[in-house]
Amino acid sequence: MEMFRFGNPEYLMALVLIPVLIILYIIFNRKRKKAIQEFGNPELLEPLMPNASSARLAWKFTIILTALTFLIIGIARPQFGAKLQKIKRQGVEIIIALDVSNSMMAEDIQPNRLERAKRAISRLTERLNNDKIGLIVFAGDAYTQVPITTDYTSAKLFLSSINTSIVPKQGTAIGSAINLGMKSFTPETESSKAIVIITDGENHEDDAVEMATIAQEEDIIVHTIGMGLPQGGPIPIINANGQKDFRKDKNGEVVVTKLDEKMLQEIAVAGGGKYVRANNTEVGINAIFDEINKMQKTELESRVYSDYNDQFYYFIVVALALLLLEFFLMERKNKVLKNIKLFK
Asked: Which domain holds residue 228?
């Protein structure tokens, strides 16, 4: 079975011109008929204009419109997949679970914990070769942001849009993130699997250590990266006046969010993984990746259409032929051919 695609699908937006031109033609045609009616009775005027043909105008417009449609489709470069290949890759599967709770906006790690983590993940994708990667975001709940894939470009694109408002429920449900990560790997595969939790560790929602234990029992390694310094930092917010302020508790005291290093160490031990603390020099994701690289790499098979053949020239030829036909089709009846009833 051949796959079909457009090489430049953005040009298909020009097809919106077709209904616009039809509407303009209808308006023009109504004004033209109204002008003739104001000049005199159309039935009485018809014998005075024996070579006039409103049908020819409609045909010319239809031909131009059809030619324009074919031309737009042509420049969008329709292509058919010509060769299906099975590519076998040796790699592992990695799910990264990124904490997007408000505490990740603390600036003890510059520019802030979340932004620094996103940059580190982006750099990690540049080191990946045949491995599969997926991305989960979590706060009070966990959600899949990027399903397991080898499309690193798409993963980086989705990564750039992540912020603290992407998960509506606040909190830090690390256990939920591990649980979702366990379900996010490729089904029925024996590939080596790892979950990397990137968080400040202030878990308030569930038993993350228990979930990490369950993951290890299913041969899924759980690593943790602690985002934050031991002394912690306030959580910046923008107040009603549009000025930078800091989040306060119910007593009006500035909330200081601190790294829960003990929790993350316990999760890593339970998950058979490694714990790394981030700092302003290095996040630590490279150290985790070095651990992942030691895992046994298994064969990952994927199908790709390695070659696509352009078919745009067929559409361009049809468009040019229609434009040539329109050029030779006169608006008025030809005296020699007027007895041919092709156009009334």
From this structure: 93-296
Residue 16 DSSP symbol:
G
For residue range 185-244, what is the model confidence (pLDDT) as tens digits?
988 778 899 999 999 987 666 789 999 999 999 999 999 999 998 889 999 988 778 788
Instruction: Give the residue from 162, 131, 120, 127 showing the smallest Cα distance to 144.
Output: 162
Pairing of strands 193-199, 93-99: parallel
Task: Extract the tokens encoding 57.
Answer: 């105008």
Check: CB of residue 308 under 8 Å from CB of residue 80.
yes
C-alpha–C-alpha distance, residues 193 and 181, integer Å: 10
**Residues 135 and 281 grouped into a single domain:** yes
**Residues 68, 16, 2, 155, CA torsion sign:** positive
- Residue 162 resides in a domain: yes
- Note whether 262 and 120 are same-domain residues: yes
Helical H segments across the chain, by residue range: 17-39, 42-45, 54-75, 113-127, 152-160, 174-183, 208-217, 261-270, 285-293, 312-328
The pTM of the full predicted model, rounded to 2 decimals, is: 0.62
* Amino acid residing at 93: E
Q: Return the pLDDT at 101.
A: 93
Neighbours of 37 (CB within 10 A): 11
CB-based contact 68:130 (threshold 8 Å): no
**Close Cβ partners of 201 (under 8 Å, ≥ 6 residues apart):** 172, 174, 224, 226, 228, 259, 260, 261, 263, 264
The yes-or-no verdict on residue 45 having pLDDT over 60 is no
Angle at 131 between CA 125 and CA 134, to 5 degrees: 65
Same domain, residue pair 111 and 160:
yes
Is 333 within a domain? no
> Strand 142-149 and strand 78-91: pairing?
unpaired
Please indicate, yes or no, whether residues 129 and 261 belong to a single structural domain of this protein.
yes
Does residue 302 lie in a domain region?
no
Count of alpha carbons within 13 Å of 17, Cβ hemisphere only?
15
